Amino acid sequence: MSFSIDHIPSNLSRLSSCFQNHMNTLATETASAWYLILNRKRPPKKVIASYF
């Protein structure tokens, strides 16, 4: 399998943008989780139990 060196920069930039999007999503999820925990707006245990 051969490929030209010209393709490497575009692949790297695409990979880094995907990684950046993933980190932004992760940061948003973590922040919202901490927000819920700090404000104690967790659902009642009855609601959690109904999922199982």
Short précis:
The chain has 52 residues and is mainly alpha-helical.
Keywords, separated by commas or semicolons:
0% strand, mainly alpha, 2 helices
What does this structure look like?
The protein is mainly alpha-helical and 52 residues long. 75% of the residues lie in helices and 0% in strands. The protein has 2 helices and no strands. The protein has helices spanning 7-39, 45-50. The chain starts with 6 loop residues before the first helix and ends with a helix.
The helix content, as a percent range, equals over 70%
Q: How many distinct beta strands? A: 0
Radius of gyration: 20 Å
Tally of DSSP helical segments: 2
Main beta sheet strand tally, sense and closure: none
Set down the secondary structure blueprint.
Layout lengths: L6 H33 L5 H6 L2
